[in-house]
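Per reviewer request, we include the raw input and output of the structure prediction for the construct analysed in the revised manuscript.
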Amino acid sequence: METPGTTRGAAQTKMSTAPSKQQNRELFLSSARQHLNRLYEFVRLQLAYFQSAGDLLLGELTTEDVVDAVLLRAYQEFVKGSAEREVGSWLIQLATERLKSEVKRLKSERNRTVHLEGDIPEVPPRKKSPRSVKRFSISISRAKI
């Protein structure tokens, strides 16, 4: 029969074997650091593709922004203890998901935006009614008399 003290001792042992925040951070950074160049290159090429396809405007999204967001999400999932996986392909997968969602969001924003700097169509001048033209010409002819 387990006593409350036994259960508590087991919980304490479990807690002491769990890595600290600092250890998690160091472990994550050491494994992610090996894949940063490949991740940056992948994101840079994907951004160039989306820009050439017209899905993104130049400078609308930067490589650094995407990589930072990917690393933050990867760290959050890493701390939660997500399943073991190959870090390089996992980072690329996260980058792909992030790029797709950002392109979709930015395109949607662009479609809802009204640009004030754009050309405003000219409104054709209103035609004067023949009656007002007639009055005008009559008043001019009286002035000459």
